[in-house]
Amino acid sequence: MSTITYYLDMQRPEQIIGKPLPADLSVVECQHKQYQLNRFLYQLVGEPWQWTDKLSWSDAQWRALIEQPGHRTWVAYYQGAVAGYYELLRDAEGVVEILYFGLAEAFFGQGFGGPLLTQALQSAWAWPGTTRVWVHTCSLDHPSALANYQARGLRIYREEVEAEAP
């Protein structure tokens, strides 16, 4: 079975098709950068989807990613528990990648994905100087991931198919 990676983007903030944040879900930016928190969030959210590429990273590698000026993190909380998170990474040209986005497994199916993605897109566009927002997902991600990205106004601009090794 092959894996399909989808690259989606948005050229203007007016393209956001928003979904309101439920009153009991709060989203807070981590203004004090803590690479250990990002490592925890990566594991918490990524575990069901085998996010493994950074599991072997050293503290120095995590610190280098998280502490760079163009990196920002937000955490979603529901009744005091971490419900999900997203990370944004902006380059020198103002292009913002939604580097990581997702919900903790305990919160699947509760309708939080659309509102949290709306927040991620609004955060990206509220960052002064943003020129474009993009994200990638793949066929190994949550079955609703691609549909959520498209429902919020992101459009596929590239697909890559990687055949599974025999």
From TrEMBL:
InterPro entries: Acyl_CoA_acyltransferase (IPR016181), GNAT_dom (IPR000182). The keyword Transferase applies. The keyword Transferase applies. Transmembrane segments: none annotated. Gene3D superfamilies: 3.40.630.30. This is GNAT family N-acetyltransferase. Coiled coil: none annotated. Keywords: Transferase. Residues 25-166 form the N-acetyltransferase domain. GO terms for molecular function: acyltransferase activity, transferring groups other than amino-acyl groups.
